[in-house]
Each structure stands twice: as structure tokens, then as C-alpha cells.
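Figure caption, in words: inputs first, then the predicted bound structure.
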Amino acid sequence: MDQAALRKILGDIPLGSIRFFDSVGSTNDLAANWARKGAPNLSLVVSDEQTAGRGRKKRRWYTPPGTALAFSLIMQDSPLGDLTPNSQLSRLTALGTLAVCGALGHTYPEKLEPQIKWPNDVLVAGKKLAGVLCEAFWQGEQLDTVILGIGINITSESMPAPELLDFPATCLEAEVHMQVDRWDLLHTLLTKLLYWMNLLPSPAFIQAWSDNLAYRGTWVQVIFDDGSSLEGQVSGLRSDGSLILMAHSGEVVDVQSGAIRIRPLEGSS
Ligand code: BTN
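Bound structure (biotin present):
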């Protein structure tokens, strides 16, 4: 792939501008630099390889050459001005996960049932296939530019060694049992992303987010950054993006997306 060819493949999608690289540290960093220098809204950075890809909570994200989709979209002019910055970020993260679910469901309707592992992962068959990292520039208390970074494991070489994982991972080719054209998938994904972007403030967006939520009705353990944890049954989402859990006591608890990990409890349904 090269920049001219990618621009042609994505030519019918109303993006700002497109940059393609064979190898970068992190596409989110390149996108952030480009945004600072005046990139137009909806500009896209794609790289075949990332040598310093990042996940949430400063985890590493592996992107060896030729194995994955890794890209970052620069988003300005958020239509979510009425929401708090944290709710906006959580909805924009959901936008990424929903677009991945939509693209996978559209491309492999018989084969995959992708789900959103709140707040930022996409699972297939209970394993992590993709992750979203939404990073923001602030103007005082307000969000200015948001960088929406998405990584999808395509071939088995995209996955780190099992001992480096804190949650089981998978890759698209293992799930669909066929070769995947990364650039076709990117085209479908960006189409879904722009579709849901137009609906961001609407109840339809929250409904779709909620419909795609993994672990609904399942008992999960939520682990906070300070090491404390909470068990509860997933019952849905609030419109501000928090996850609604029903604790053993029957108490309803809203969990904010900031500093948590979530995992299903063994044998629960
Ligand atoms: C996570 O699962 O914690 C989020 C992973 C996000 C990875 C993508 S790959 C493209 C973009 N560039 C990065 O450095 N990270 C995101």
C-alpha cells in the first residue's frame, strides 16, 4: 500500500486528508502533531506498522508490519457540546467501537457477532479483536480536537505473546477462516464511522451502543486503578456513557469509564 493508492480506495469517503506511512511510532501521535499544525477536520493517519503503538492506561499496542489495521482520525467540531467533556470522550470512544462492530457485522454477517466490551474494546467470540484509544486536546475546560485511534488484529502475527496479555485476544483471519483485505475493511469501517458520527447526539446512537454491549445480564468484576473491585450484573448504559451494574445487594451502581478494567466472572451468565 502507498498513500496514492489508499487515497484512491477511500476516495468516495468525505475525509479531510489522508496520510499513509509504512512505519510510525504511534498513529495517534502523528495525528496529534498534524492537528496542531492545522490538519483539516476528519483527516486520517494510517500506518502499516507501529513501533510504539499505545493502548489505554499506557499499555503497549502491537502492530507488526502487514498484520493489522492501525489508524487515527482527527475530529474537530464535536456535535456533543451539551455533554460534559468526559461524556463526550466516552461517546466518541463508543463511536469507534460501534463502527468496528458495524463494519465486521456488515462484512461477515454469517460469521461474526462482534460486541463492545465497555468502554473501548471489541470482542469476537469472547476474545479481544480490536481496541479504541480516544485522546483529546483541551481548550481550558472544553474539548478541542479529539484523536480517535483504532487498532484491529488481522493476522495471527498481530497478537502479542499470550503471557503479555491480560485478556484473551484473537485476530480477524482466525475468526473468519479466510484472508482479509485490510483496506476494504478500512473503507467499510470509515463509512460506518461517518454514519454513526452523524447520529452521535441521538437516542439511536445510545440504543445501538447498548444493543452491541457485551456481558449484558452477566456477572462481571470491575477492577479500579486503586486495586479495589466491584462485582455486579451488567444491566445497561446511561446516556452519559456510564455502565449500569446491579450489585449482589440489589443496589444499582453507575461505573464511569475512567480508570477501570472489567472481566466476566467464571460460570456466570
Ligand atoms: C486499547 O485496547 O487499549 C486501545 C488500543 C488502540 C490502538 C490504536 S492502533 C492506532 C492508534 N495508535 C495508537 O498508538 N493506538 C491506537
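The pocket of biotin is lined by residues 26-28, 50, 53-56, 59, 61, 70-72, 120-121, 131-133, 149-151 (CB under 6 Å).
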